[in-house]
Design brief:
This protein has about 550 residues and is α+β, with helices and mostly antiparallel strands. It contains nine helices and 30 strands.
């Protein structure tokens, strides 16, 4: 063997002694038995520097957090670098789960076994550090009937942060309502801080509806430093799953479908009455319990003989009163009488379904008599008697002198008459130019258009372009009568344009601004705002110190 070969063997031995042998990656769990809902930390140590591939874990686990750190040591002339990865795993189901061999570069870890016991939920978990309670009312709703879902998170430890997931299921609209309530209570002899949150669930189809249990995931202070969460420890809780038996709409129910427990409708008008040509406000108020604002049809007033009706934007208030979802809707209508006498506002009827008695009912008002007095101009005209025929007296000497003086003054100042004629000619010219401009902007109707009714939406656009707010309001009323206009479902820009129109017609609003808003909002037709179907996820940020 030559000297060169011995030299290379020696160099390889020195490198092996200086660098050491690279060990295979090692994996271990911080515990091998957990309850469902809790998390377990998987640790992987490697000297290759390659990141582990966690894709094989997604079948049985949810990955909740991940961290890594690298250490370099020098001992007896050898350099060793180790990297430690830590990932928090939350089991998706109970049983004996296998953590498969994971690839770390060209190497693989050894498989591990984890035993997951069924987690305690609801009342079973009372006495634990953290537990969830669920209350649902009613459990046998109709389609479209709101269900109050109350979620209570109780904890006897200090929470640093956390997320509270709302219930979820296919075929149900879930949204959060109201503010969170926080209070203290004693459960099983232990003091707890309780966070209460409410949701409104609206079933969209009949049959069995299974709601997944709500879940809380958070962090609390830990005695030892956790490799994933630092100085914190992960905690979790699971709420009970609920199955709703959703009933279909009854065959004898009227449309639109409005399930509720209480419905009251009232109508008010000023006691002083009204005058011809002057607007008077008539107010409709609807009080409902056991329903949601989205289920309530738009308040409308029928045609009033002898008056024009101008609706205002409805005012809607939705809240929870003593655990019951309550809706109050108020809408004003401006009535402009066209003749004096007795004006009768017809009764308003709203059909609804009483979920307590399982029977159809109608909320309605009584016809409202409204005395209408003549306007100021009509009163003045009617009170002046026609002039009587009298003989003209002979002019006196004084009157003849005054007339002679006036004639002399008029003859003496002919330039005043000339100025007045020039002013009248200038005004006539301006009027002619203005009418020509309007005629140029007004679309020319074809003979075919004259033989068929005009589309109210086109009438609305033309009225907005010409600044005729009264015609625009009449077109909106035609759209409402045809059922094409649902103000509650319009986009915010179109609702704002309607509100600006009402203020301009019956208040001190800016007419030009109302015209511009109408023209821009309805240029592309009626647009419906998108409907949020699932409640947004809001993080729970419990207070570091209990509230007293």
């Amino acid at each position: 063997m030559s000297r060169t070969v011995y030299r290379w063997i020696a160099i390889g031995a020195l490198l092996a002694l200086s660098c050491g042998v690279i060990a295979a990656p090692r994996a271990w769990l911080d515990r091998d038995r957990v309850a469902q809902g809790d998390t377990v930390t998987l640790n992987i140590e490697s000297e290759t520097g390659d990141a582990p591939d966690f894709a094989a874990l997604h079948g049985d686990f949810d990955l909740r957090g991940q961290s890594s750190r690298t250490e370099t040591t020098i001992a007896n002339g050898s350099v060793r670098t180790r990297t430690l990865w830590a990932v928090a795993l939350e089991p998706r189901h109970s049983g004996v789960l296998t953590i498969p061999a994971l690839g770390v570069g060209a190497e693989r870890t050894e498989p591990l076994t984890l035993t997951v016991t069924p987690g305690q939920v609801g009342a079973q978990a009372q006495g634990q550090d953290v537990f969830l309670e669920v209350q649902v009312d009613p459990q046998t709703p109709y389609v479209g009937q709101p269900v109050m879902y109350t979620l209570r998170l109780s904890y006897a430890i200090t929470l640093l942060d956390g997320d509270l997931d709302p219930p979820g299921a296919d075929g149900v609209d879930v949204r959060r309502i109201g503010d969170d309530a926080s209070y203290q209570r004693t459960v099983a002899g232990r003091r707890y801080q309780t966070l209460e949150r409410r949701f409104v669930l609206i079933p969209e189809r009949s049959g069995a509806l299974v709601l997944n249990g709500a879940r809380f995931r958070g962090r609390t202070l830990a005695g030892l430093r956790d490799p994933v969460f630092g100085g914190a420890r992960a905690v979790s809780a699971i709420g009970e799953g609920v199955t709703l038996q959703v009933k279909p709409q009854p065959a004898q129910a009227q449309q639109p479908w409005l399930p509720a427990t209480i419905a009251k409708l009232s109508m008010q008008a000023p006691t002083a009455g009204a005058h011809v040509g002057e607007p008077v406000n008539v107010e409709l108020t609807l009080h409902l319990q056991g329903t949601a604002a989205a289920q309530v049809p738009e308040l409308q007033m029928p045609e009033v003989p002898g008056a024009r009706v101008f609706p205002d934007v409805p005012q809607v208030r939705e809240r929870v009163v003593d655990g019951v979802l309550t809706v109050d809707i108020t809408r004003r209508f401006a009535l402009v009488p066209s003749q004096a006498g007795e004006l009768t506002v017809p009764a308003v009827r709203i059909p609804w379904w009483n979920t307590l008695t399982d029977s159809p009912q109608i909320a309605q008002t009584e016809p409202l008599p409204l005395p209408v007095a003549a306007g100021d101009a009509d009163s003045d005209t009617g009170s002046v008697p026609p002039p009587a025929a009298v003989s003209a007296p002979e002019p006196s000497a004084a009157s003849q002198a005054a007339a002679s003086s006036t004639a002399t003054a008029n003859v003496a100042r002919p330039w005043q008459w000339l100025s007045l004629m020039l002013l009248l000619g200038w005004l006539i010219t301006l009027g002619w130019i203005w009418r020509r401009a309007l005629a140029a902007r007004r679309p020319v109707a074809s003979p075919r258009d004259a033989t068929r009714p005009r589309d109210p939406l086109n009438v609305l656009r033309n009225a907005a372009a010409q600044g005729d707010l009264a015609a625009a309001d009449a077109a909106l009323r035609d759209l409402r009568r045809s059922g094409r206009l649902d103000e509650g479902a319009l986009e915010p820009s179109q609702r704002a344009a309607l509100a600006s129109l009402q203020v301009a017609l019956w208040g001190d609003g800016d007419h030009e601004q109302a015209r511009l808003l109408l023209r821009q909002a309805f240029a592309d037709g009626l647009r419906t705002a998108p409907r949020a179907s699932v409640a947004r996820r809001d993080p729970v940020l419990p207070p570091l110190y209990p509230e007293h």
